[in-house]
């Protein structure tokens, strides 16, 4: 009678988690290295880090696991996926990453981590060079990170637009647009922007200045900037270009990677049109935005969906304010 040998217990408690810990630590080490300013070598938003960092995390996770026993193909997928999620959480804990970027990037990192895990798992099964492969994967982001900043970033510029019929005269809506005071959190916090950490708006006040008409925007965490009027038709149409001061975005008010007017993202202009209709007034809002990253295919749809959602919240905000008693 054959008796199956009892499974060998882990050497120490929680040792099955060691491969994930190794992957997380590898990712944190890379993130600390890729802490350069936007546009400089080893900047966080370089493709060398965004594409290859999670691959390295996945490869290290699988390599560490294969050192103790052969793992399954499903392990090559899920363990690197989980390791990258914990890696992103780790960047929050050591305060090298902000909540906004962490939420946006974690799905991409988790998927790329699984790719790295599959690559390393295949190498471990079919070759005798897993260590050499791991060294090679480590070297790739280091090499590309040193030279990628010299390349020109691709630029995508798009327009997002939404409209709403409001049961109020154009003059009333126009007044609310230019004199939006004491904005309460519950009036705007449905916007995804604000739910992931962007400071809430507090007021938007238009006024005449020596340099022309401007609308001053104030937000939480001392964020402030101006919208300079470039087109104006009383009670009908207004367009603003955004103007930022050196202190518009205090340190840690926003993630450095998504600051308006920054290296990677901007909302260039905003515009409103008010058109009388049989049901009231049609309010139309349009924003022109730019994304400039090595992964625009991923960043652009996110930016578009965020801005479309934000425009919808703005329209409902002006509807409530224009129709209240």
Helix-strand layout with pairing:
Elements: H1 18-33, H2 47-50, H3 52-66, H4 73-93, H5 99-126, H6 130-147, E1 156-166, H7 170-178, E2 179-180, H8 185-188, H9 192-195, E3 201-209, E4 212-219, E5 224-233, E6 237-243, E7 265-277, E8 280-291, H10 296-323
Antiparallel strand pairs: 1-8, 2-3, 3-4, 4-5, 5-6, 6-7, 7-8
Helix pairs in contact: 1-3, 1-4, 3-4, 3-5, 3-6, 4-5, 7-10
Q: What's the architecture of the largest domain, going by CATH? A: 2-Layer Sandwich
Radius of gyration: 25 Å
Helix-strand string = HHHHHHEHEHHEEEEEEH
Query: Could you give the count of β-strands?
Result: 8
Q: How does the overall form come out from the CA principal axes?
A: elongated
What portion of residues is helical? Answer: 40-55%
Overall tally of domains? 2
Quaternary organisation: single chain
Characterize the structure shown.
- This protein has 325 residues and is an alpha+beta fold.
- It has 2 domains: 135 residues, no CATH class; 168 residues, 2-Layer Sandwich (Alpha-D-Glucose-1,6-Bisphosphate, Chain A, domain 4), CATH 3.30.530.20.
- Helices cover 45% and strands 22% of the residues.
- The chain has 10 helices and 8 strands.
- A hairpin with a 4-residue loop joins strand 4 and strand 5.
- Helix 3 packs antiparallel against helix 6 and helix 4 runs antiparallel to helix 5.
- The longest helix has 28 residues.
């Amino acid at each position: 009678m054959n008796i199956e040998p009892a499974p060998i217990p882990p050497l120490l408690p929680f040792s099955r988690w060691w491969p994930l810990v190794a992957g997380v630590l590898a990712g944190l080490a890379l993130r600390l290295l890729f802490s350069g300013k936007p546009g400089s070598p080893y900047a966080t938003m370089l493709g060398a880090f965004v594409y290859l960092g999670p691959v390295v995390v996945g490869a290290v996770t699988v390599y560490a696991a294969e050192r103790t026993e052969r793992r399954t193909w499903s392990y090559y997928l899920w363990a690197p996926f989980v390791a990258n999620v914990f890696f992103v959480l780790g960047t929050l804990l050591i305060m090298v990453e902000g909540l906004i970027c962490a939420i946006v990037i974690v799905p991409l990192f988790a998927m790329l981590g699984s790719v790295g895990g599959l690559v390393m798992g295949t190498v471990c099964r079919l070759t005798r060079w897993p260590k050499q492969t791991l060294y090679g994967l480590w070297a790739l982001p280091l090499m590309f990170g040193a030279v990628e900043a010299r390349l020109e970033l691709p630029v995508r510029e798009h327009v997002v637009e939404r409209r709403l019929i409001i049961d109020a005269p154009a003059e009333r809506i126009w007044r609310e647009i230019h004199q939006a005071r004491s904005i309460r959190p519950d009036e705007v916090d449905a916007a995804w922007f604000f739910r992931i950490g962007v400071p809430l708006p507090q007021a938007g006040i238009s006024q005449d200045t020596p340099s022309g008409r401007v609308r001053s925007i104030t937000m939480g965490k001392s964020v402030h900037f101006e919208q300079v009027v470039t087109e104006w038709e009383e009670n009908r149409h207004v367009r603003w270009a955004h103007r930022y001061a050196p202190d518009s975005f205090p340190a840690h008010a926003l993630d450095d990677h998504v600051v308006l007017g920054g290296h990677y993202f901007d909302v260039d202009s905003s515009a409103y049109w008010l058109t009388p209709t049989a049901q009231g007034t049609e309010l139309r809002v349009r924003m022109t935005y730019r994304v400039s990253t090595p992964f625009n295919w991923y960043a652009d749809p996110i930016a578009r969906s965020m801005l479309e959602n934000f425009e919808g919240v703005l329209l409902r905000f002006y509807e409530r304010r224009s129709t209240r008693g």
